[in-house]
Amino acid sequence: MEEIKIKREAYFKRLDELREKERAATNADELKKIAGQIRYVERKIHRTNFPPERRDYTVKVKLVFEGEVTVYTTSKKEALESVKNNFGAVLGNVQRSTPEIINWDIPVHPQKIVK
To answer: Residue 41: which domain range?
Structure first.
């Protein structure tokens, strides 16, 4: 693969050199000769089946875990606050920081949303 990349770069480098020469050319014969060389290199690039050039893409992903938590408290409001402040997960490792949270039922496979 490295050889193909070097060959591709060499063709494009040569094409850039020829275009520079074309801009600096002074007479018609010289322009005609350079234009022929440019066409030759462009055909070589076109005929050589280079794999498409790859690059990095950033894709936004949202992983949503949805489930239920059982909390031993005196009110719904207190239960909500306890879960909000004392319960969470870090990539599948469910953690609690209070003994009030006694059980949870959350699947290990999240819903995946790709944007």
So the answer is: 2-47
